């Protein structure tokens, strides 16, 4: 019997400009039979680095939820509760203490992420940030491959697909405009850190072997705490190395990103990307002149920009 897999994503007002396009893309690209598809919605005001981001209003985001629910893409929207009782309950369950900061030093969520996980009922949980984009080769599911791997490897709690498509790593590759070297020696690779951007999690293993989460520093990002706890407990995150599936994340939700989002989604879904590009492999840089790298690749693949 195939195990149940929950889908969950955290959302807030700053997601309005890109949320609907992104989620429709994700379900289309992953093409996976999730047992439930959940949104955890935080109606509160962003803090820290998120405070300066453009945002919509409650009417806009609720209308997005209504359309996703009506189309059967989402099963339920849970509003994150902010009562002290709810906060203490969730923090105790995951940290075994209730004096943890609800957000990290830079305003990123801690309590909200854990609340979203807490609402899931699947044997496995796939969680993603609301702006993640995924490339998946038709007929190949990295989520199904990850479940098979997690069943074999008792030390592994989290699985992810490769972060970003190939990128020129040196002057020669930039000149040749192609990668040099052979294929990775194995399909799975042990990652040194954990990221909350996206992951597939073995829920029972997470609860029985990793919890409680331990902080190395007060008010640190949740992903730092989980990285710290994984190392202390001898547990791991593995990621794929092949090109069949990969993820990419916008570095900024700037005007260029929002203007060309349909084209950028098309590029990711079709495996189109600039091999020579700015930034980290897993980040999509669109600010200022960097958008041209992506638009040139899109035009080279024969697509006429939608704008």
Automatic annotation (TrEMBL):
Q: What is this protein called?
A: Glycosyl transferase family 2
> Taxonomy-wise, where does this protein's organism fall, top ranks first?
Bacteria, Pseudomonadati, Pseudomonadota, Gammaproteobacteria, Chromatiales
- Which species expresses this protein natively? Thiocystis violascens (strain ATCC 17096 / DSM 198 / 6111)
């Amino acid at each position: 019997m195939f195990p149940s897999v929950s889908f969950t994503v955290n959302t807030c007002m700053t997601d309005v400009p890109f949320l609907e396009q992104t989620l429709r893309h994700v379900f289309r690209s992953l093409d996976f039979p999730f047992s439930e598809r959940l949104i955890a919605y935080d109606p509160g005001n962003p803090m820290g680095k998120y405070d300066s981001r453009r945002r919509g209003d409650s009417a806009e985001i609720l209308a997005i939820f209504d359309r996703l629910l009506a189309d059967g893409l989402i099963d339920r929207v849970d509003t994150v509760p902010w009562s002290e009782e709810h906060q203490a309950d969730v923090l105790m369950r995951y940290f075994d203490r209730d004096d943890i900061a609800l957000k990290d030093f830079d305003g990123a969520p801690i309590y909200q992420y854990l609340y979203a996980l807490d609402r899931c009922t699947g044997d496995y949980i796939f969680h993603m940030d609301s702006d993640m984009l995924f490339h998946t080769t038709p007929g190949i599911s990295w989520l199904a491959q990850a479940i098979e791997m997690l069943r074999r490897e008792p030390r592994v709690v989290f699985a992810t697909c490769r972060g970003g498509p190939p990128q020129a790593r040196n002057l020669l590759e930039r000149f040749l405009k192609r990668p040099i070297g052979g294929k990775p020696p194995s399909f799975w690779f042990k990652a040194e850190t954990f990221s909350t951007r996206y992951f597939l999690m073995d829920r029972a293993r997470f609860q029985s072997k990793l919890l409680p989460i331990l902080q190395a520093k007060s008010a640190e990002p949740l992903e730092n705490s989980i990285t710290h706890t994984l190392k202390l407990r001898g547990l791991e995150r593995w990621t794929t190395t092949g090109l069949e599936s990969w993820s990419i994340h916008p570095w900024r939700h700037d005007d260029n990103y929002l203007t060309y989002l349909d084209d950028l989604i098309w590029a990711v879904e079709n495996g189109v990307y600039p091999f020579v590009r700015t930034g980290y492999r897993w980040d999509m840089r669109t600010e200022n002149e960097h958008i041209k790298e992506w638009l040139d690749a899109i035009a080279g693949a024969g697509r006429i920009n939608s704008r």
